[in-house]
Amino acid sequence: MSRLEAGALKLQRQWNSMAEIVDTALRRLRRSVGERALEINVSEDLPLVSVDSVLMEQVVLNLVRNSLKFAPPHTPITISAAVEGENLRVQVKNRGPHIPEEHLDHIFDKFYTIPGMENRRGTGLGLSICKGIVEAHGGTIRAENLPDGVAFSFTIPSLQRISLTELSEDEESE
Questions:
Q1: ∠ CA 45-75-101 to the nearest 5 degrees?
Q2: Which residue intervals of 35-163 are DSSP H helices?
Q3: Predicted TM-score (pTM) of this structure
């Protein structure tokens, strides 16, 4: 978290498949998921993205863990990804309780917990780590209430927005 805040995090960018990143994250979560249904809508045909796969995997892990913690047992968690304009958008949806509107803009703040939820285990760092990683990749992250739950979405630049300078830096680091 300190390196994220200081802007000192050195990304190990490589061309990656978001489908593989999601798959790897979910394999690590196998025990935590238990009997809960996971609905995965992440196509192998999505464009490759220039990301640090270990850090992006951490974002997926944190968002799914958050859903496991707050959504009622036996309700599904949906993970999807799609191209939106020049970005790749990844979304983790659950059927948990709505986040009060006044807290939506703060849940990605370090150590932030929604009043009344302090008894849930956790440090209040998971979502802020997600925000730092996504922003380090030039993306954005947000949470929104849906009619039947909550969605966490992040976008990262897809192939179309990677500059020639970044491509050259990626090739030099290999």
A1: 90
A2: 53-70, 101-104, 126-136
A3: 0.82
Residues in Cβ contact with 86 at an 8 Å cutoff, skipping those fewer than 6 apart: 157, 158, 160, 161
Q: How far is the C-alpha of 140 from the C-alpha of 133, rounded, in Å? A: 10
Helix (H) or strand (E) holding 116: none
Tokens of 153: 């979405």
d(CA 9, CA 24): 22
Q: How is residue 68 written in tokens? A: 């496991």
Among the listed residues 169, 117, 155, the one whose alpha carbon sits nearest the alpha carbon of residue 11: 169
Q: Which runs of E-coded beta strand occur in the chain?
A: 14-16, 38-41, 49-51, 77-84, 87-94, 140-146, 149-157
CB 36 within 8 A of CB 75: yes
- Assign residue 134 a region (left: φ > 0; alpha: ψ between -120 and 50; beta: otherwise): alpha
Residues composing the chain: 174
For residue 170, pLDDT beyond 70: no
Whole-number Å distance between alpha carbons of 136 and 3: 11
* Phi, psi dihedral angles at 80 (to 5 degrees): -135, 160
Element (H, E) at 149: strand 149-157
In tens, the pLDDT along 101-153 reads 887 888 887 765 665 554 455 556 788 899 989 998 999 999 999 999 999 99
